Amino acid sequence: MLLELADWMARHFTALHLFQYITFRAIMAALTALSLSLLCGPWLINRLAALKAGQVVRSDGPQTHLVKAGTPTMGGVMILLSVTVATLLWADLHNRYVWVVLGVLLSFGAIGFYDDYRKLVLKDSRGLASRWKYFWQSVFGLGAALFLFHTAPHAVHGATVAETALYVPLFKHVVVPLGLFFVVVSYFMIVGFSNAVNLTDGLDGLAIMPTVLVSGALGVFAYVAGNRVFSEYLGVPAIPGAGELAIVTGALAGAGLGFLWFNTYPAQVFMGDVGALAIGAALGCIAVIVRQEIVLLVMGGVFVMETASVMIQVASYKLTGKRVFRMAPVHHHFELKGWPEPRVIVRFWIISVVLVLVGLATLKVR
């Protein structure tokens, strides 16, 4: 929106050519989303408290969590609103990738919102049935995957097309053409990461800080992929138009920092499914577009670890009747071992910083 206005006015004010730079607009999107989060946060928290949309604490969980009961939830609305407004203001709205990611963010957010609303406002403990939640995640995830596949250029005479091939980090020439299997990979990345972030969102600030870090790193990959000179020099797949996603990732990082202001220990608000499902799906979608699925699994290792702990716990109990962890996801395991909640949170943040740096290092190590 502002880009088009600036282009029109640049004929009279040459300084407005600054809006042509993706880096400038990404920074402005981050600051805009941060400001919106900080401004609307208090109002939203009070509104959620008035609706009595408070956190329900598991009776079998750590006893220290009992004090969290009643804390306003569904704060993810703050993130979605801030990201959407900042993106619409600063991104090139003619870019299809921007609309795909926004569509994924809002559609998965709608699923989470309906689930949260039924559980927290209507006091329906069942919320949205798991089968229906997964069904709608699959519909929107598959829809995004099919759109990206059908709008991407396809191979001619056996040539490999960047938009639909799998790139293996550390190896410059290891490229696996996916063909129609691209849809399957994209689907699992979007839906899988949506649920992974949701599982991680169990402690104050635990999920949002890794989200900020991973978003920023994906923004770097998007910028490089969208710049033919940089992508050729670094051996990264060139994806024309992907650079605009740096504005979306900037907005997501800024909104995340704004949310963290209220979500840091002890939290004044929780994001709920409306935030967690949307954020995870958006990260997965961005990674698919910039062809960095494997790198996302590394940088988002905290999310992967949390999901793996649940899968291991369930499989172990069904096969042997024994539990591997005291409680899953794994952050609860460390709490039950006696770690104070802030220690668990900060140490997981440190792990996330390290993994993001490892992921960024793959830009050069090829």
Automatic annotation (TrEMBL):
One of its GO terms (molecular function) is phospho-N-acetylmuramoyl-pentapeptide-transferase activity. One of its GO terms (cellular component) is plasma membrane. Mg(2+) binds at residues 198, 273. Pathway: Cell wall biogenesis; peptidoglycan biosynthesis. The chain crosses the membrane at residues 20-45, 66-91, 97-114, 134-153, 173-193, 205-225, 245-262, 269-290, 296-317, 344-363. GO terms for biological process: cell division; cell wall organization; peptidoglycan biosynthetic process; regulation of cell shape. Its EC number is 2.7.8.13. It is a multi-pass membrane protein. Its main location: membrane. InterPro entries: Glycosyl_transferase_4, PNAcMuramoyl-5peptid_Trfase, PNAcMuramoyl-5peptid_Trfase_CS. It catalyses: UDP-N-acetyl-alpha-D-muramoyl-L-alanyl-gamma-D-glutamyl-meso-2,6-diaminopimeloyl-D-alanyl-D-alanine + di-trans,octa-cis-undecaprenyl phosphate = di-trans,octa-cis-undecaprenyl diphospho-N-acetyl-alpha-D-muramoyl-L-alanyl-D-glutamyl-meso-2,6-diaminopimeloyl-D-alanyl-D-alanine + UMP. Keywords: Cell cycle, Cell division, Cell membrane, Cell shape, Cell wall biogenesis/degradation, Magnesium, Membrane, Metal-binding, Peptidoglycan synthesis, Transferase, Transmembrane, Transmembrane helix. It comes from the Bacteria. It is found in: Cell membrane; Membrane. Its cofactor is Mg(2+). Belongs to the glycosyltransferase 4 family. MraY subfamily. HAMAP family: MraY. This is Phospho-N-acetylmuramoyl-pentapeptide-transferase. The gene is mraY.
